Amino acid sequence: MDDRYSRQTLFPSIGKEGQKKIRSKHVLMIGAGALGSGNGELLTRAGVGKLTIVDRDYVEASNLQRQQLYTEQDVVDKLPKAAAAASRLKEINSEVNIEAVITDATPEKLEELVKGVDLIIDATDNFETRMAINDISQKHQIPWIYGACVGSFGMSLTIIPGKTPCLNCILKKIPIQGMTCDTGGIIAPTVQMVVAHQSAEAMKILVEDWEAVRTSFVSFDVWRNQYTSMKVVKAKDENCLSCGQNPTYPYLDHENIMKSTVLCGRDTVQIRPPKQQKLQFTVLSQQLKALGYEVKGNPYLLSVEMNEQRLVIFNDGRALIHGTNDLTQAKTIYQRLLG
Amino acid sequence: MNKVLFFAHLKDAVGEEVIELDTNGKSVVEIKELMKEKYPALNLENVMAAINEEFASDEDILQAGDTIAFIPPVSGG
User: Fold this and answer.
1) Given CB 3.0 to 4.6 Å as the disulfide criterion, which of A32, A40, A92, A135 pairs with A55?
2) What's the CATH number of domain A6-255, 3.10.310.10, 3.20.20.70, 3.40.50.720, 3.90.1150.10?
3) A130–chain B Cβ distance below 8 A for any pair
């Protein structure tokens, strides 16, 4: 397919040279939900060299309205998003080296994942992970592109270490997550608008057109018809603990205290064991069945039906407990079944 | 006089996208407190502020004619 990228190389700011650069780059994308689906597809179609997709979740029916890479069959199969996304993206462009990593993007994991990476795309759904990405980006001098959306409202910011302020300069601390859940819902056009901003910035960075990179914090509401672009040069803080004179990367420290998380608006708690495990699903599945539970699974996860809750266990020992927002109850269930 | 703009769900809490207010000489944090008194349903904690489309910190002071916008950071994705 010689002319596969012809329309992109005809675009003067990319050209043949730019295309070679795109081809030589490795992008790390954290999250494979709505923003991850959109960004992943555009980067793959654009012909990036390597795309690593990291996600901790699996495909559910409520994803299909906006997460463009997934199908009804993925829901039936309860496929992990990273695996489902990778297989779809390989069909779209077999030239791209696509790697699926089914894990929680902890600071420790991020340290392993950023090796040789040219750009990080934020497609996460929480500020803890974003702040960790922000710190890792500063520590290893890798640009990243923040993107987020809820309802009809979306926003994006491009962070280039050494040039722009970082997310910690602007937010100062982790904002209350509740604001996202309370407003409720998300429509697909909001996602696409954020994806358009993120992937345009990604292309600029991949072709090294640094002059073209947006230096403002953009936000828009596609339903209430608002659009604003906030200049952020002034926000750069020399005392910032992430990007200032004496950085301590505070958000890379959280590994040991963030063992359970309530997943916002999902009536779900995530439990992560302190040490990564390698579970033997066949053995575990038999044990759980012997206890009288209904167990379903695939090579990546086991789903255990209980009275009020449903437990989904990944083979690294991480679990999602659906049907509760109670951390203690979730931990109890986890420990009862997995010790 | 000053214009105060509310983005996204803040617009719903206030009932209007933009209000006119004489905030001369007040800092961003003071305006936030004023808005909270005026609109009890409005939560401006962790909300970003821009004065004339430029990032503003809590201590920045508004001058006559300035427009201040409140933009809530969101985390979905």
Assistant:
1) A32
2) 3.40.50.720
3) yes
Q: Extract the tokens encoding A153.
A: 């409202």
Go through A113-137 and write b for each residue having 16 or more CB atoms within 10 A of its CB, e for each that does not.
bbeebbbbbbbbbbbbbbbbbbbbb
Residue B55 is nearest to which of A33, A124, A234, comparing CB atoms? Answer: A234
- Return residues 1-20 of B near A (CB < 8 Å): 5, 7-9, 11, 17
* Total-model pTM: 0.85
pLDDT in tens, A253-281: 865 445 677 776 678 888 887 666 778 88
Chain B residues with beta carbon closer than 8 angstroms to that of A34: 76-77
Best B54, B55, B57, B67 residue to mutate vs chain A (most A CBs within 10 Å): B55
Q: How many CB atoms lie within 10 A of CB A252?
A: 20
Given a contact cutoff of 8 angstroms between Cβ atoms, the answer to whether A318 and A308 are in contact is: no
Asked if A36's CB is within 8 angstroms of B54's CB, the reply is no
